[in-house]
Amino acid sequence: MPPSIPHLDNHKLEQFFGRFVSDLGAVMHAATVLVGDRLGLYAAMVDSQWITPTDLAARTETDERYVAEWLAAQAAAGYAEYNPDTSRFRLTEEQAFALTDEYHPLFFPGGFQAAAATIKDVELIVDAFRDGHGVAWGDHHPDLFVGTDRFFRPNYIANLTTSWIPALDGVEHKLHTGARIADIGCGYGASTIIMATAYPTSSFVGYDPHPPSIEAARKAAANAGVADRCRFEVGAAADYPGRGYDLVALFDSLHDMGDPVGAAAHIRDTLSDEGTCLLVEPFAGDRLEDNLTPIGRIYYAGSTMLCTPGSRSQQVGLTLGAQAGESRLREVLTAAGFSRVRRATETRFNLVLEARP
Q: Which of 26, 160, 274, 354 lies at a CB distance of 3.0 to 4.6 Å from 156, suitable for a disulfide?
């Protein structure tokens, strides 16, 4: 006998089915974005001129039939325009801006690369769900490390030296006149290098426990021409060396730590008497219901696949999660010994807190 079908609200079912179709299309489309990014297909359309599949294949030395199907996929997803009268495609200036230059303030493909890496690691997370063990950052697919760097860098380019640091009390003046800065959980070093480029009279050191990331950061600093004032070392937040830092910064990293209170306490101890801790975390309200938004959807998914398993893999395993919210973050900083904590500024994606001893 066929299975019985429960009485359902057809309108709600249709709405949910529409969400499923949209989500499945987004997941399938993500792979085509990575193909276009990897092969330079978007870059070959950066001039926003109408182009045929034949022309694009010639420009990129790729197969015409594959290119034709790829262009159709881009048009269907709204990532390109199609003119049925001429059978030509193009990127609008806005699409080209967001898809072709990873040093622009808005760049999309890095986020898709990081997201695709989580799909490759599904079995790792399934196993962790079953017995509660953690998954260390270094155990993930290597695409995650590159994708994370490419995903976060545009946000830092847009905000770090133009908004976040100027919002701190007296910090920008110190950086212009010469200060010592530590960037904790620096990854591939994008945030450190951006600061070192903007404030050439200051000295910077980035610490991260993941050796391959530190190696990549050193190469990036050399390529950017800031290696003389910007170095990178393997080190954890709870025991990195040095004292008397004028600024210690954490960019989207505190919630990944197993012992964020212990890390914040060590940061406090390494600051100078008038030093500042800059904490940049994913934007979140204090209640779960405040975060049931498109941005919260991204962060909760990332936290499920990356942040919570990463914290669980370390000592203490507090698992703040990527949507901890300002009140919880303040609790962590206060427990670590900081006496003054304020929200310096915010964006749609980030909370920016300033903490003083």
A: 160
DSSP result, 204-249: EEEEES-HHHHHHHHHHHHHHT-TTTEEEEE--TTT-----EEEEE
HSE toward the beta carbon, residue 41, CA cutoff 13 A? 29
Residue 1: pLDDT band with limits 50, 70, 90: low
CA distance 106 to 90: 19
Q: Report the alpha-carbon distance of residue 353 to residue 7 in Å, rounded.
A: 50
Hey, what are 142's tokens?
């290597």
CA distance 302 to 297: 9
CATH class name, domain 10-100: mainly alpha
Q: Give the three-class secondary structure for 92.
A: coil
DSSP annotation string for 277-341? EEEEEE---SSGGGG-SHHHHHHHHHIIIIIHHHHHTSSS-----TT--HHHHHHHHHHTT-SEE
pLDDT tens across 273-297, in order?
999 999 999 999 999 999 999 999 9
> What angle, 0 to 180 degrees and rounded to 10, lies between the N-to-C axes of helices 143-159 and 109-120?
150
The answer to whether the beta carbons of residues 52 and 88 sit under 8 Å apart is: yes
Q: Pull the structure tokens for residue 252.
A: 């989207």
Write out pLDDT tens, residues 98-151: 999 888 878 989 999 999 999 999 999 999 999 999 999 999 999 999 999 999
Domain 109-356 has CATH 3.40.190.10: no
- Please tell me the distance from the alpha carbon of residue 357 to that of residue 270, in angstroms, as a whole number: 10
**What are the residue ranges of CATH 1.10.10.10 in the chain?**
10-100
Write out the residue limits of the CATH 3.40.50.150 domain(s) in the chain: 109-356
More confident residue, 7 or 191: 191
